[in-house]
């Protein structure tokens, strides 16, 4: 949907002003110059307050004041720019919120080869073929059949004029709308060229230009329709209907009519219609359309499911947790569409360049047609690298060359080179469980020099479990667990959940309820139990409290052996006990009071199977530095870093220190991507050039805050993302420079007679437009493969 922040305003009577949004399909609006023409036409309609035009989807979202205009006027304005509107329905307004109409999100598939335009093109092509036959082969039968202003018309001429009428009139009509809207685009240039050539009797050139350009337009329409297919496939994942349990009966209703809290029935093979929680049944669910996971996930009561996922085998009853418009899939589709609307730096450069390029070449075309005949009295021969060229001053030759330059002036292939690449890349990523919020982030990710990775939940699974319970003194394991769990019951940290789970498993009995609970950021927690203050946290917290843990932690940062303590006066732990636990990659939580240690609890987080290979693959793809940033202790950080193979790690970092670490990486290496959970790492994610959230499916905050979201908890998608983005940048550069290079070569070849009108159309316009579109579509063939039990390693075609 399109939201307009000014949708609610004051009317003259002091009330709220209503604004409606029409969502319309304009399939033929498939290039930036087309959108510019439509925009200029809409600007002349009083009452239109905002317009979002997306050539890549063929849609127009137009916000208007219903008291001053109507949707019919909006449609009339778009058609006044020369484009047919396929969809549209009057909106129902809301006095407080501006809601878009139930219109279209993408133009419907086009019947390109059987459309009225196509039929006229084929008729024109038949006339041209017959005309060429009479003009060059059946010259004896090419008799005069009529005359106009004493100018004889032969059979071939009549056939060529028939081709101009069939294929050229639609072009001239579009050119008229361009002139009407003061838009110097390909339609105006080609329409002008066809009229001019016909007017001075160059029927062959006029007919050839009309037919070839019409064929080029059909091919470009076909290519754009193929590009739109990837987004259509994404949108088709969302089911239209849902089977709901109402009053004990199953009722099939449109998905948008199901409310939050209702129960939907999903049978084997059905798509899950809405986001929800399983309340009955068990099944394996293929949620690859949302998260990109290649293996179906087992779902039982209490598990989340997403709209668009496919129920593989069992019967499920799902309690709906979001409406159709707010489902994870809906938000993904909406964000993909929004991403295509944001212009990248390359697009902005191209638009600016095209603004100078087209007028300049048009002027050159006029000068080419007019100046040489005036200044060249006698033929001039020029030898260039052994090739001889003769320049004569006849008007016909230079007019055709000017006409050819006019064709080359069209920047279509150049202008669409970036948008089609962005569309292909972003929609391909979305179908593989990676949501890229804008083309600028697609470009930026391909340019990163360093990747910073959070540890917990990124390189590791984030599923903590207690591995060791180490009581000291007279404290028993049960007593240690009871005190620790009593403190942690007020905390929402994953470590707290692990300790509580272990206490429940051990059956330690009723837990004490602490008072005066306080979280000590980055260090631990404290609370009062039975009138005494207890602490649970990092060893550093207890060292601040005055305990000497040097003997138990003999190995310091980097593995350097510390000077041996003369006495373990707080001596509860065995020598090197804490260090040995940390060396194994375990997080150590010490429990005690200000005067006594009760013991330590070690917690481990399993490294993801794909983490090691993902880091290796990032290096193979050219990422200069991969760094792990964590708030965990030195020993745990070192152990995980050695397991996954990062270049360096930084441990015991508070959130603001992660920001400092990202800034240091930027200063040393250049552009940085930060991968985290999208919430706790928000400051660091915002500081990096690209912020990437892990496991964002169903998480509103992560979907909204991250630049890129890995919808499944799969670090193996990170190399795929980098490869896709890096390849996309290469494709964009190839398209831009190939378009410019071909245009430049053709422009140089025109004055010396090496480039004809047909070559200019076939190569410079049609060929390059198809070329850049086909090159962009290569991005859809880059796909993740399985990596260490998870998807990850990508395949480039």
TrEMBL record:
Belongs to the cation transport ATPase (P-type) (TC 3.A.3) family. Type IB subfamily. It is a multi-pass membrane protein. GO terms for cellular component: endomembrane system; membrane. GO terms for molecular function: ATP binding; ATP hydrolysis activity; metal ion binding; P-type monovalent copper transporter activity. InterPro entries: ATPase_P-typ_cyto_dom_N, ATPase_P-typ_P_site, ATPase_P-typ_TM_dom_sf, ATPase_P-typ_transduc_dom_A_sf, ATPase_P-type_domA, Cation_Transport_ATPase_IB, HAD-like_sf, HAD_sf. Residues 1-21, 87-107 are annotated as: Disordered. Its EC number is 7.2.2.8. It is found in: Endomembrane system. SUPFAM superfamilies: Calcium ATPase, transduction domain A, Calcium ATPase, transmembrane domain M, HAD-like, HMA, heavy metal-associated domain. This is P-type Cu(+) transporter.
């Amino acid at each position: 949907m399109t939201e307009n922040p000014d949708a609610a305003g004051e009317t003259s009577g002091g009330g709220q002003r209503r604004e409606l949004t029409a969502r319309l399909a304009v399939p033929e609006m498939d290039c930036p110059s087309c959108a510019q023409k439509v925009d200029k036409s809409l600007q002349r309609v009083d009452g239109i307050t905002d317009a979002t035009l997306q050539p890549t989807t063929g849609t127009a979202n137009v916000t208007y004041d219903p008291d001053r205009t109507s949707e019919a006027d909006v449609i009339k304005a778009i058609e006044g720019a020369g484009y047919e509107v396929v969809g549209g329905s009057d909106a129902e307004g809301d006095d407080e919120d501006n809601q878009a109409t139930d219109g279209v999100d993408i133009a419907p598939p086009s019947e390109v080869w059987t459309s009225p335009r196509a039929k006229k093109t084929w008729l024109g092509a038949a006339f041209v073929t017959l005309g060429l036959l009479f003009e060059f082969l059946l010259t004896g039968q090419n008799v005069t059949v009529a005359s106009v202003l004493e100018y004889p018309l032969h059979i071939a001429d009549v056939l060529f004029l028939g081709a101009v009428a069939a294929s050229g009139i639609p072009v001239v009509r579009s050119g008229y709308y361009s002139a009407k809207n003061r838009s110097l685009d390909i339609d105006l240039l080609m329409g002008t060229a066809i009229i001019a050539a016909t007017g001075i009797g160059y029927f062959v050139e006029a007919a050839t230009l009309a037919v070839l350009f019409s064929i080029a337009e059909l091919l470009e329409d076909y290519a754009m329709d193929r590009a739109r297919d990837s987004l259509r496939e994404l949108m088709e994942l969302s089911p239209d209907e849902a089977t709901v349990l109402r009053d004990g009966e199953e009722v099939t209703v449109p998905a948008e009519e199901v409310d939050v809290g209702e129960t939907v029935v999903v049978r084997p093979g059905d798509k899950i219609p809405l986001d929800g929680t399983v309340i009955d049944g068990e099944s394996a669910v293929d949620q690859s359309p949302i998260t990109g996971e290649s293996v179906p996930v087992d779902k039982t009561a209490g598990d989340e499911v997403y709209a668009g996922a496919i129920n593989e085998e069992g019967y499920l009853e799902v309690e709906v947790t979001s409406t159709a418009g707010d489902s994870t899939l809906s938000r993904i589709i909406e964000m993909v569409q929004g991403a295509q609307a944001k212009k990248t730096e390359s697009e902005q450069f191209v638009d600016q360049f095209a603004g100078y390029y087209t007028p300049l070449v048009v002027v050159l075309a006029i000068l080419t047609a007019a100046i040489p005949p005036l200044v060249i009295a006698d033929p001039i021969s020029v030898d260039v690298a052994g090739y001889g060229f003769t320049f004569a001053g006849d008007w016909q030759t230079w007019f055709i060359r000017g006409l050819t330059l006019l064709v080359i002036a069209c920047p279509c292939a150049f202008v669409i080179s970036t948008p089609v690449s962005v569309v292909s890349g972003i929609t391909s990523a979305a179908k593989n469980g990676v949501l890229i919020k804008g083309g600028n982030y697609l470009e930026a990710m391909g340019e990163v020099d360093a990747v910073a990775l959070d540890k917990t939940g990124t390189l590791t699974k984030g599923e903590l479990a207690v591995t060791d319970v180490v009581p000291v003194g007279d404290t028993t394991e049960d007593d240690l667990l009871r005190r620790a769990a009593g403190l942690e019951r007020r905390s929402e940290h994953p470590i707290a959940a692990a300790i509580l789970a272990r206490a429940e498993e051990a059956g330690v009995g009723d837990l004490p309820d602490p008072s005066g609970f306080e979280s000590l950021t980055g260090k631990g927690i404290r609370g009062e139990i039975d009138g005494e203050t207890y602490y649970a946290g990092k060893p550093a917290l207890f060292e601040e409290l005055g305990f000497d843990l040097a003997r138990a932690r003999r190995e310091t940062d980097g593995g350097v052996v510390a000077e041996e303590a003369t006495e373990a006066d707080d001596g509860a732990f065995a020598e090197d006990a804490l260090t040995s636990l940390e060396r194994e990659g375990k997080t150590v939580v010490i429990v005690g009071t200000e005067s006594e240690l009760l013991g330590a609890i070690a917690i481990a987080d399993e490294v993801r199977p794909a983490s090691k290979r993902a880091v290796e693959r990032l290096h193979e793809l050219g990422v200069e530095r991969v760094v792990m940033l964590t708030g965990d202790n030195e020993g745990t950080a070192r152990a995980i870093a050695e397991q996954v193979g990062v270049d360096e790690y930084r441990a015991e970092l508070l959130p603001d220190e992660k920001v400092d670490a990202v800034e240091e990486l930027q200063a040393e290496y250049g552009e940085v991507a930060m991968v985290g959970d999208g919430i706790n790492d928000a400051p660091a994610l915002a500081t990096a050039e690209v912020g990437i959230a892990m496991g964002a499916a169903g998480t509103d905050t992560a979907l909204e805050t991250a630049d890129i979201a890995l919808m499944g908890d799969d670090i193996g998608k990170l190399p795929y993302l980098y490869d896709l983005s890096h390849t996309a940048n290469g494709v964009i550069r190839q398209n831009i420079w190939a378009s410019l290079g071909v245009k430049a070569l053709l422009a140089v070849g025109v004055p010396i007679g090496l480039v004809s009108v047909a070559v200019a159309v076939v190569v410079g316009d049609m060929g390059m437009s198809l070329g850049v579109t086909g090159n962009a579509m290569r991005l859809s063939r880059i796909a993740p493969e399985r990596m260490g039990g998870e998807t990850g390693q990508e395949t480039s075609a």
